[in-house]
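hey
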């Protein structure tokens, strides 16, 4: 059933964002734990999450901080991991680019993997949605996610080393990304990009300061782009 009002769109977004609670809670708790282990206090861990609000980049920065990597490497690596947000923004612009400036600014801050994935899927499924409905849906989708990210960052930081390893909270990171990216494998180019990135990341695991992640990301993007060009040429030749 098509969404008809901003309020119903918001509520639909909340419902669609609820499943992410299952991974956001352990994910944020794990970040809080690791932040304390890296030398941050509870307030610093919370501010980290408030300012950066990007789980993968935050984990990358923490790991490099624990390895005593140079500050420039920490910043560059976190930025590289978070460059996907620029692509998310470009992808969202056709849908919400005409919204008021304050809404776009808030949406930019709240653009995380979860809110982007469910929102784009909904916008593609219901192209007749108005801009106010899309904005409402986007904010609804992020409502169950962001507050819990802050809250459980603090919980994890306060618990510190009291959480036993048997809880295996680190499962949340790979499970979250697998759940989000699997539905996005719609073309051969997507599959090629993911496959190349995985292979290169495994080959580059020994690169200092986790720079293999950046190398793998670049390799995946190049491979995906080349696959897309190859597919486009095949389509042109077949016409």
């Amino acid at each position: 059933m098509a969404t008809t009002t901003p309020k119903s769109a918001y509520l639909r977004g909340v419902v669609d964002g609820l499943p992410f609670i299952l991974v956001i809670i352990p994910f944020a708790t794990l970040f809080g734990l690791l932040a304390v282990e890296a030398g941050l206090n509870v307030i610093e861990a919370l501010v980290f999450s408030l300012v950066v609000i990007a789980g993968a980049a935050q984990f990358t920065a923490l790991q490099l901080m624990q390895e005593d990597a140079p500050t420039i490497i920490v910043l560059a690596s976190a930025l590289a991991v978070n460059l996907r947000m620029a692509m998310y923004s470009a992808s969202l612009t056709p849908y919400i680019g005409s919204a008021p400036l304050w809404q776009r600014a808030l949406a930019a801050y709240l653009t995380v993997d979860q809110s982007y994935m469910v929102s784009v899927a909904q916008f593609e499924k219901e192209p007749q949605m108005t801009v106010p409905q899309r904005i409402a849906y986007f904010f609804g989708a992020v409502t169950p996610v962001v507050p819990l990210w802050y809250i459980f960052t603090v919980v994890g930081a306060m618990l510190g080393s009291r959480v036993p390893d048997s809880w295996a909270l680190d499962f949340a990171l790979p499970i979250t990304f697998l759940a989000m990216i699997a539905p996005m494998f719609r073309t051969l180019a997507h599959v090629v990009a993911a496959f190349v990135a995985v292979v290169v990341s495994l080959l580059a695991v020994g690169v200092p300061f986790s720079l293999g992640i950046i190398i793998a990301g670049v390799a995946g993007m190049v491979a995906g782009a080349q696959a897309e060009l190859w597919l486009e040429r095949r389509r042109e030749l077949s016409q």
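Residues 185-239 form one domain. The mean pLDDT is 84.
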